[in-house]
Design brief:
The protein has 378 residues and is of the alpha/beta class. Helix content is 37%, strand content 15%. Helix 2 runs parallel beside helix 9, helix 3 (56-66) packs across helix 7 (197-206) and helix 5 (110-116) runs parallel beside helix 6 (136-143).
Amino acid sequence: MSRINVMQPWLGAEEIAAVTEVISSGWVAQGPRVAAFETEFARVQQAGFAVATSSCTTALHLALVVAGVGAGDDVVVPSFSFIATANAVVYVGGRPVFADVDPSTGNLTAQTVAAALTERTRAVIVVDQGGVPVDLDAIRAVTDPRGIVVVEDAACGAGSTYKGRPVGAGADIAAWSFHPRKIVTTGEGGMITTAREDWSDRARRLREHAMSASAAARHASVLAPAEEYLEVGYNYRMTDLQAAVGIVQLGKLPEVLARRREIAAAYSKQIADIPGLRPVEDPAWGTCNFQSYWVEVFPEFPLDRDGLLAHLAAADISARRGIMAAHRQPAYAGVAHGPLPVTEHLTDTTLILPVFHQLSESEQSRVVAALGTAAAGG
């Protein structure tokens, strides 16, 4: 038997050719390929403007900065998310206020957000967890009348839809990830999308030390004008090498999405016959890209979540624990929060099964068979 990984990127000759072309051009830093990637990403995601960054974490940081979130502000976030969601709040001097999530989707809801609001709440970061679209309109019905900005952490969301549109299209501002675990990858990298040109313009400056003229514009001039540094900025740039890969990957998104949904449908059909397991599904308001295909392990299953992970590992199948609970991490030990029963339950009882474009039918059958033997107590 060969090992079945939980995820692997789908990269090939087209990406190699794109990177080779960039190297041959002599321009490998942020330049024309980054601009082209931004334009194409904005088109695909139905966004007004897109700004490429070095990661989704830096995109979240800049999103909060341009939205005016700063020291002393409270920001409602799910604890049920990768720790970067909360970290971005700390970067701007804010206080993350952890809210609980829906037991079916793993996402914030209008009710859990409302319960976490304080007099100092300036923003809410909602997450399309594992690619499951958040019910954004319901949350904005709570936040908009209060003047609270909604930032959508769409790190896992490329290809998912909400009410017939790409996720992120209805947010004030959204942040995206192109990490290798995501279905569109540039190795590392991120993106901001927003309908506000003033926010996109400022984010574009801030990612490049807040220079008055971009490096690309200066290097295009024989006699470059002297630049000014308009405020304290950051080095959050993407390279043209990464963007070249991203352009190819974005062109593959429809095919990748169709394949992942095919794999997820096959899992769901077969897992339905295994008592004690609940797979993630499309919510009523949208469709999931199944960036992560997670399964909840009920008490009646013969093994607990960790026992099932060990059972799969013994069959050379690499699964992963479900989404972390940030409030349990040492970095946030001193942050006060209310009860988070659903977050803690899902963190303790969910696992992520292998899903990637190249997963074969026989490999998926091995995964399901291993789940079946665990259910039978074997």
